[in-house]
């Protein structure tokens, strides 16, 4: 029997970019169903466990009926205060917990919603290419026009901001930046971020900086916060998250902070969309931020050892690849002449190793693949051995 079609998708859904990893996902699942041993260096999701003291706090808070009711969109005061303390300790940035911090149900939620709060249909949102997908999809869902800012290796994977068309920057309602960067693993300097602030002030649009990887860095390098720049708070906000820092991706806890007007606009939107975060998660988040940071140091040491193993081995095998200073990704040139999608598909087929083709993050990602350092060293070694045999 023919199913009756009872709806047409809203146009905004049809305008979202196609999900480019369908083929690779399908091939991966097929191999796994056949019982093949697939090593997945594709997903950006920590394999390490959430530290025990954070779990303990969740469990204790879950037993208290006072925590079972609706929270507020703006979260409990204690969480906003803990975030303010952490920003002060970590970056020497002062934040008002009442007006300059907004908890989010994972930072992705706030990132994807921000254009809905700032842009009208036809306005421009400036988005890096390659990038974390929600910058682009959030802008599209808001009906905005996405203007891509290529991240090129010769420019340190920072956009050439003053090369953007006047027409685009005049209509811009938001500029997304992300350092340490996913997928390129690049970091930004104060001077680069200052350039963005200068442009934003000249043309009058807000900056949203995503700092999800600020705590994952190597060899003594300390990433900066966008908010450390003196004028940052007058033009922008920073997104942050417990996901990568404390292995809490499934928990959904992050925040936006900085410019009070931007925080208020996003907050106003969110009161109409959600009713806040489960309170035990907020209490556990406080335990994460205020608690012992030993497990974070251990996680960073783990990622660093994995990075060294992967990069040293691939470089020896002739790959054009450098050691990232931050994030848990390695961004490498495709070592053959194949397009990144074909190369990744072949690697999966022949060596049962998943890597993410760079083009999936945007056209300027073509020619690269991204490795995630989220599997144990023995598996990374095995992956490198298989890859070398294949090529
Ligand atoms: C993982 C990631 C996040 C964090 O997302 P959550 O929704 O907080 O889990 C944000 N930005 C980038 C670039 C990421 O890779």
């Amino acid at each position: 029997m023919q199913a009756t079609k009872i709806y047409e998708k809203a146009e905004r859904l049809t305008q979202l970019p196609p999900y480019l990893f369908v083929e690779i996902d399908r091939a991966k699942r097929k191999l796994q169903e056949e019982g093949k041993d697939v090593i997945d260096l594709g997903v950006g999701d920590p394999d390490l466990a959430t530290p025990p003291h954070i779990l303990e706090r969740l469990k204790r808070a879950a037993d208290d009926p006072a925590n079972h009711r609706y929270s507020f969109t703006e979260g409990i005061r204690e969480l906003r205060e803990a975030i303010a303390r952490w920003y002060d300790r970590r970056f020497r940035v002062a934040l008002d917990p009442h007006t300059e911090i907004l908890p989010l149900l994972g930072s992705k939620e706030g990132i994807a919603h921000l254009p809905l709060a700032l842009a009208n249909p036809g306005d421009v949102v400036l988005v890096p290419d390659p990038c974390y997908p929600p910058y682009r999809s959030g802008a599209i869902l808001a009906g905005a026009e996405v203007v891509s800012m290529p991240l090129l290796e010769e420019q340190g994977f920072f956009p050439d901001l003053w090369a953007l068309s006047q027409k685009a920057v005049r209509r811009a309602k938001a500029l997304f930046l992300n350092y340490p960067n996913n997928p390129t693993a690049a970091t930004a300097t104060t001077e680069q971020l200052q350039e963005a602030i200068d442009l934003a002030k000249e043309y009058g649009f807000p900056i949203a900086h995503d700092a999800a990887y600020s705590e994952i860095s190597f060899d003594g390098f300390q990433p900066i916060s966008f908010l450390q720049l003196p004028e940052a708070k007058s033009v922008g906000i920073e997104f942050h998250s417990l996901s990568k820092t404390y292995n809490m991706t499934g928990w959904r806890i992050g925040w936006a902070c900085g410019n009070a007007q931007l925080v208020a606009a996003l907050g106003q939107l969110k009161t109409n969309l959600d009713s806040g975060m489960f309170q035990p998660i907020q209490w556990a988040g406080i335990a994460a931020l205020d608690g012992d940071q030993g497990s974070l140091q251990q996680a960073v040491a783990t990622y660093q050892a994995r990075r060294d193993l992967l990069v040293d081995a691939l470089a020896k095998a002739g790959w054009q690849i450098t050691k990232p200073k931050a994030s848990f990704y390695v961004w490498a040139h495709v070592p053959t002449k194949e397009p990144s999608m074909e190369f990744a598909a072949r690697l999966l087929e022949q060596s049962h190793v998943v890597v993410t083709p760079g083009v999936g993050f945007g056209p300027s990602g073509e020619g690269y693949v991204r490795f995630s350092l989220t599997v144990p060293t023995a598996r990374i070694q095995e992956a490198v051995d298989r890859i070398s045999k294949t090529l």
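The pocket of pyridoxal-5'-phosphate is lined by residues 44, 106-108, 132, 178, 182, 210, 212, 241, 243-244, 249, 254 (CB under 6 Å). The longest strand covers residues 172-178.
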